[in-house]
UniProtKB/TrEMBL annotation:
GO terms for cellular component: nucleus. InterPro entries: HARBI1-like, HARBI1_dom. The chain crosses the membrane at residues 12-32. Residues 94-154, 155-230 form the DDE Tnp4 domain. GO terms for molecular function: hydrolase activity; metal ion binding; nuclease activity. Residues 240-264 are annotated as: Disordered. It is found in: Nucleus. This is Protein ALP1-like. Pfam families: DDE_Tnp_4. Residues 240-256 have a biased composition (Acidic residues). PANTHER family: NUCLEASE HARBI1 (PTHR22930:SF206), PTHR22930. Signal peptide: none annotated. Belongs to the HARBI1 family.
Length: 280
């Protein structure tokens, strides 16, 4: 993965170990420096270097499957998750979460303060039925609403065609059919919360406290963690997400506007979901 060109005497194996130790421990560069007997400035360069190398393989590790067989496998996975054949049409689950950051000193911290009053940067992601990331979009300040992040993502023009974004019915729900649809929708969608939970559990020292790097470097660190998350899942290294690592009460449902086309598609899917409910 790492190129051989470097300006210090440490080999790529040591570089990877330093980077993984930093991610896993959440330690400062000074602590990592002492642990490896490497100058602090070199530790900083290694962390930046390895994360940039990981960014070079992002499009190969985090990507939407291209073949019909892979797409069909994802659909079958969502059918199993939701326990409803209508959700076989799903090709991914999308949500956002907030990554805690240290308040930047050189700029107005207000734009980074989210509705829960801590400073953060948005991570928006799409995952498949196995909690493997298919797309990540990182970098908006925490005060920005989920719906705006979605609209500024490069995938937003695709929300109607070729794929539609199907949200649950908004509260207050009108009838039993909407409650049934939301229940099955939630079963399928919960995998993205699980994906965030697994990633935060694996790198809990990074994610369960404020990330103490410059805000401009946060997207690279988070993307590196998402890449390693996919690599670990691909190698069969799975972790159960811990309860305190699960994302709470996101604002996505209230922020995405229902359109006439979207409502019509949801009504069609709702009828198919109801038809697929087992009869008692």
């Amino acid at each position: 993965m790492l190129s051989q060109e470097r300006h210090h005497g440490w080999g790529p194996t040591i570089e990877v170990l330093v980077f993984l130790f930093w991610l896993a421990s959440g330690a400062s560069y000074r602590v990592v420096s002492r642990a490896f007997s490497i100058p602090k400035t070199t530790v900083c360069r290694i962390v930046h270097r390895v994360s940039e190398e990981l960014m070079g393989i992002l499009s190969r590790v985090i990507c939407v499957p291209a073949t019909a067989e892979e797409q069909q496998e994802i659909g079958q996975g969502f059918e199993r998750l939701s326990q409803n054949p209508a959700l076989r049409k799903a090709r991914g689950a999308i949500d956002g979460c907030h990554i805690r950051i240290k308040a930047p000193e050189e700029t107005d911290t207000g734009c980074y303060r989210n509705r829960k009053l801590f400073t953060s940067i948005h991570l928006q992601a799409v995952c498949d039925h196995r909690a493997r990331f298919l797309d990540v979009y990182i970098g908006f300040p925490g005060s920005v609403h989920d719906s705006r992040v979605l609209k500024h993502n490069g995938g937003y023009p695709c929300l109607q065609r070729p794929l539609a974004l199907i949200t649950p019915y908004k509260r207050p729900l009108r009838d039993e059919r909407q409650r049934v649809f939301n229940r099955y929708h939630s079963k399928a969608r919960s995998v993205i919360e699980r994906a965030f939970g697994i990633m935060k559990t694996r790198w809990r020292s990074i994610f369960l406290k404020a990330l103490e790097v410059h805000p401009s470097f946060v997207p690279t660190v988070v993307a590196s963690c998402a890449i390693l998350h996919n690599i670990c899942l691909g190698a069969g290294d799975e972790l159960p997400p811990e309860e305190d690592c699960r994302e709470e009460d996101t604002e996505s449902e209230e922020g995405v506007q229902d359109t006439s086309n979207g409502n019509a598609l949801r009504e069609e899917l709702c009828a198919e979901v109801l038809a697929g409910v087992p009869r008692s």
